[in-house]
Amino acid sequence: MRDTLGVLLAGGAGERLFPLTRDRAKPAVPFAGQYRIIDITLSNCINSDLRHVYILTQYKALSLNRHIREGWGSVVAQELGEFIEILPPMQRVSKSWYQGTADAVYQNIYSIGSEEPKYVIILSGDHIYKMNYAKMLQHHIDTKADVTLATLPILPEEVSSFGVVEVGKNGEVTGFEEKPKETKVRSPFMPDMVDASMGIYIFNTDVLLPELMKDAEDPNSKHDFGHNILPNLLGRCRMQAFNFVDENKQNALYWRDVGTLDAYYEANMDVAGVTPIFNLYDKSWPMRTRAYQYPPAKFVFGEPGRTGMAINSIVASGSIVSGAVVRNSVVSQDVRVNSYADVDSSIVFSHVNIGRHCRIRHAIIDRDVHIPDGTVIGYDQNEDRKNYFVSPSGLTVVTRDYSVYENPVSPEFMQTL
Fold first, then answer.
1. CB proximity list for 382: less than 8 A, separation 6 or greater
2. What family does the Swiss-Prot or TrEMBL record give for this protein (predicted)?
3. N- to C-terminal Cα distance for the chain?
4. How are the residues of the chain apportioned to helix, strand and coil, as percentages rounded to the nearest 5?
């Protein structure tokens, strides 16, 4: 891994996570009470001993930049040349914003070249999974590959959301198609499944950089790894697939793209159960984040009808559940849930105050929101739509200026979610 540079793409606008991404980048959205989404990939890097990482940011990156600077700068040994470094768009080789995933890497080609890595691993900052990238790199080296794609099995009806990888019996990649409507391709190892790209690629640097420059000069290119770089390299270099090895230690593989509100909500619910599907408590694969100096969580009052308790939930430090009930929920740092309130199957971001007698279910409460006494959220979608954002599936999202939401988005936009 000393010869490997990680390039973590964290610049997506995250429209499908609106309104959570209205004021923050998608990788900066909170996750599981005290983390940000990007912490999962960065933890994988550290646990894999990948300690040379560039993070490519773009949209609304202030909170993300601050989180990386204050939470991750001290994790690596800078005196040994290790780094986790933010690279904003510098327009060094182009005067435009990043036009695609490949263009984002191309626009930082000088920074990559200055490190002189033998291998470059391309990562995304908006997925939830546990993976040892060192195992993938060893597979890349052992198979003498020029490019290696991480793959996982999916159902054939899910292919429109993934890059479909056609894999030979020896693991060689013989075909690639980005997000087809349907496919007849099947995995040679699981005949009822399709091998899908995880968006994780290892390139030999001497293969990657010339291909990025060639792609940048193509006016018809989308400048995207899935649409352009990988299909163009097929047949011209040795391309291998690496079957996802899950470090989560569960019976089923766990990988989640949290690019939509529903997927994000379900991933948070996955960590709050009695036996969490995504285990944050595995000491052999620790998840790291920025440390805040809050006191421990506290639960007070034990009177009939006024008992402070949390059931099947995560409650982060600095929070007080005061004579209220929290069920099946994720409560972030520095939250106050006041007496007689009931919070069920919800995600509450930091610095939120929930008033007395509130009833909240199947909702996401953004940071710094004050919920007045007696407020009811998540029980009547028609009423919720008058003041809040309600997703097509019925998930209610409350933001700081929720009172202005009469018609938060156009019907056309809602159809794209």
1. none
2. Belongs to the bacterial/plant glucose-1-phosphate adenylyltransferase family.
3. 39
4. 25, 30, 45
Neighbours of 9 (CB within 10 A): 23
Q: Could you tell me the domains of the chain? A: 4-271 (3.90.550.10), 292-416 (2.160.10.10)
What are the distances in angstroms from CA 67 to CA 26, 34, 63? 13, 12, 6
In the numeric block, the tokens 């919720």 are attached to 384
Q: Give the amino acid at 345.
A: S
Instruction: Please name the amino acid found at residue 341.
Output: A
- Please give the annotated binding residues, written as ranges: 98, 163, 178-179, 197
3-state secondary structure of 147: strand
Length of the chain: 417
Neighbouring C-beta atoms of residue 142, cutoff 10 Å:
9
Secondary structure class of 289 (helix, strand, coil): coil
Tens-place pLDDT, residues 344-354: 999 999 999 99
Which residue, chain included where needed, has tokens 């209610």? Answer: 396
Q: Which residues pair with 127 in a beta bridge?
A: 257
Q: Whole-angstrom Cα distance, residue 378 to residue 374?
A: 13
Centre a 10 Å sphere on the Cβ of residue 366 and count the other Cβ atoms it contains.
25
Q: What is the pLDDT of residue 381?
A: 95
CA distance 164 to 156: 10
Mark the ranges of the chain whose per-residue pLDDT is less than 70. 92-95, 402-417
In this prediction, residue 114 carries a pLDDT of 94
pLDDT for res 402: 62
The DSSP bridge partners found for residue 348 are 331, 365
Can you say which residues are annotated as belonging to the binding site for alpha-D-glucose 1-phosphate? 98, 163, 178-179, 197
Encoded amino acid at 6, one letter:
G
Residue-level pLDDT at 346: 98
Instruction: Give the integer Cα–Cα distance in Å for 119 and 2.
Output: 9
DSSP code string of 343-372: EES-EE-SS-EE-TT-EEESEEE-TT-EE-
Which regions of 236-352 does DSSP assign to beta strands (E)? 239-243, 255-257, 298-300, 302-303, 306-307, 309-311, 314-315, 320-322, 325-327, 330-331, 336-337, 342-344, 347-348
Query: E strands of 216-277, at which residues?
Result: 239-243, 255-257
Structural contact between residues 366 and 398, judged by C-beta atoms closer than 8 angstroms: yes
Q: How far apart are CA 276 and CA 11, in angstroms?
A: 29
Side by side, which strands form the sheet with 389-390? 314-315, 330-331, 347-348, 363-365, 396-398, 389-390
